[in-house]
Amino acid sequence: MSASALQQAQGFLDFVNESPTPYHVVSTVKNELKKHGFQELSERSNWAGKIKKNSKYFVTRNASSLIAFAVGGEYQPGNGFAMVGGHTDSPVLRIKPISKQSKEGYHQIGVEPYGGGIWHTWFDRDLSVAGRVFVNYPDTGKCVAKLVKINRPLLRIPTLAIHLTKDRYVKFEFNKETQFKPIAGLVNSSSSSSSSKPVEARDGCCKGEELTEEEFHSVKTTIERHNKELLDLISQELDIEPSQIEDFELVLYDTQPSCLGGMKNEFIFSPRLDNQVTCYSATEALVKSAADGKLAKSSGIQLISLFDHEEIGSLSAQGADSSFLPNVLERLTRLTANPQVDLTSELPSSYFLTTMAKSFMISSDMAHGVNPNYTENYEAYNCPHLNDGPVIKINANQRYVTNSAGIVLLKKIGNLSKVPLQLFVIRNDSPCGSTIGPMISAKLGVRTLDLGNPQLSMHSIRETCGSADIEKLVALFESYFENYSTLEDTISVDGVE
């Protein structure tokens, strides 16, 4: 592996190790963008007069989705956008709203599966917690969201010993509600509770007694709903008192760091490859392509959109099926104009329609690399390999929205960047996953192609991809951002000049 490929692979390792949740992904991307001159915008304010040519910006929603863009120095209203879309979330276990439980002398944490994970891989792993915490500051009257990531093992979901199973060779199965609870420690001998029932089911709150003003809470306090020791650890991490924690959104993550693997460092062993590979590569490519000298000569807008909630269907205020991207695109197409134009007045909506017709979206999500132990599960002539380059994903039933026009464009981009491309289709007797591509192309009417780096063990707590493929995806995106405006006009789809 070349020195440059190793550097990009190490950059990704650092990225994913810092980003156990969508909130951390967005924070990590924000820091990288700010370091390279991107200015933060807010959806709560008017952007009129704030968007300039040869300038770079980003905006977030819910602190878990982010859109960043660079406006070319030669941009004109109605010109096309070169866009890359991905997602910030991965299958994970989320702590329940009331998580305080104990059984047989163990503290347990109630968790809820998020997305379609390979859940048996979560057993016997060294787990900790991360996410965002809303902290109350009584002196100001404000509640402020703070990121937390406890960097040591706290939890474990233990499997049943093989000696105690009825059939040692039966398929590993378990009940997600009763047998998928992490243990967090031992209950002190002074504790009066070792029951299997959660505390909230035993405290008499539903017996109809009239509560005093001191006893009443519209929702029980965080201290009552969650394990005290866990709250103490979070408070120490944030340097606050436990009573200041108003609420939180915390998930479990594997504390084993992402790392290089293989006899020649040809692999990356890591959690959350799906889809932090895109988050990292798209950010790197946008930063590189928007360097001052290059951006000044660009006639388009280069944009990345990183959405939360893809793993559960994208239907949320900050998902790909939300108004986030359309809202940002409408603002840009109406308010970005010549210096002589008064930017406090909006341009006609026809600019938005013209721009979408000239734009392109690469829906970037990880692809299935061939697993040598299960070759019978792959279409024989469309088996992508690790470190052989990004994969164009195709499905006749539009689970992926790639078509020939998009393939022609990507081939041109690949030739310019010297990045090899692979093709993938699912077997006819297998179901096909999907991406943000279909919903974005339908919502915006924009041409879209599905693409991603190949990986093994998708949706496992520990996945595998090729270490050299990170550099290839960055280079492909960078070339796409830099060359799309020139290439777009060379591919005629509807026969209209």
UniProtKB/TrEMBL annotation:
Protein name, as recorded: aspartyl aminopeptidase
InterPro entries: Peptidase_M18, Peptidase_M18_dom2
The UniProt record lists the keyword Protease: yes
Alphabetized GO MF terms: metalloaminopeptidase activity; zinc ion binding
Keywords for the protein's UniProt record, in alphabetical order: Aminopeptidase, Hydrolase, Metal-binding, Metalloprotease, Protease, Zinc
Cofactor(s) the record lists: Zn(2+)
Keyword Flavoprotein in annotation: no
EC number: 3.4.11.21
Gene Ontology biological process terms from the UniProt entry: proteolysis
Superkingdom, natural source: Eukaryota
One protein family per Pfam: Peptidase_M18
SUPFAM superfamilies: Aminopeptidase/glucanase lid domain, Zn-dependent exopeptidases
Organism: Pichia membranifaciens
Reactions listed under catalytic activity: Release of an N-terminal aspartate or glutamate from a peptide, with a preference for aspartate
Similarity annotation: Belongs to the peptidase M18 family.
Gene Ontology CC annotation, any one: fungal-type vacuole
